Amino acid sequence: MPISAAGAFCRRLGVGLRAGASLLMLLEAETKYGSPRQKAALSELLEEIKSGFQIHEAMQKQSNFFPRLMIAMTHVGESTGKLERTFLTLAEHYEQQVKLRRQFMSSIAWPVIQLVLAIGVLSIVIWIMGILTPVGGGELTDILGLGLRGTSGVLVFWLYIACFAAIIAAVIYGFRQNLGGVHNLVPVFYLIPKLGPALQTITLARFTRILAIAIGAGLDPIRSVKLALASTGSDYYESGAETVKVAIQERGSTMSEALRLTDIFPDTFLQLVEVSELSGTESESIEHIADEYEARSQMAMRTISGIVTGVIWISVMGLLVFFIMRIAMVYVGNINSALQDLGPN
């Protein structure tokens, strides 16, 4: 379920439940919204609930569609009798994620357009070199030095680009799936100037928001932390769940002490959690920390988008400068050859 659809779904259910509408009535209306897959999933969800299953149980049967966080928090909402509040809080979380994503995409849109235009210009040059012939016959000089001409040359050029894009996509997929335990390198990535702290801030913003949602819904600290760690989508963070469980259950540690034992979180963050525990209003304090980190995450996203924009821009400029210099060298070489053929005056 796309996060934009998840946010709208949770918002409509939360508002409807607050207005006093029945869950079955709301879900029946939901079967008319979204993509065909979403309509089918919600229709099946409705039938399962009519059969006597709780909503989180019905969602669990379609865990390949409904987000894990939504299923877990729906269970918490049902258990604590705060389903309405849970859905509204989830809606705010998903809407914030959509906002950050749109902010990132809009900031890199122009550099991406420049890259596409540069590829288009080079494709046209390759195509022209294949269809035009010099006055004396033969082929035009390969001014790009790629050995590509005409329509077939353009297709090969695009194949090179597709292969490069596939490699980047494979790297991203491999990281998200933690292939080869790559998530263990997360602390190394955090050492990268500008980029590392920005990535860490965004992750902590998600962690604190889910932690605030879970605690506010009445979930115990162990399950709240476990759910928040899982929401990061990183095995590096999820590995700390067992440490937190042992520290709280067996040692009687506070949440901040348990989090410190994981050696995952920065001191500045742990200090904020510790202060929130001392204040005696843990739920509200964690909520304030989540608000602060979400504000920081917006600045962090601007930093990341600026870095990506810079990389794309430098790539485009480097590509164009290389081929401009290549073309200039070809023509200078041709002029020198012509002058040599003229011989001494």
TrEMBL record:
It comes from the Bacteria. Its main location: membrane. Residues 9-129, 207-325 form the Type II secretion system protein GspF domain. It is found in: Cell membrane. Pfam families: T2SSF. Gene3D superfamilies: Type II secretion system (T2SS), domain F (1.20.81.30). It is a multi-pass membrane protein. The chain crosses the membrane at residues 108-135, 155-175, 306-332. Keywords: Cell membrane, Membrane, Transmembrane, Transmembrane helix. InterPro entries: GspF/PilC (IPR003004), T2SS_GspF_dom (IPR018076), T2SS_GspF_sf (IPR042094). Belongs to the GSP F family. This is Type II secretion system F family protein. It comes from Roseiconus lacunae.
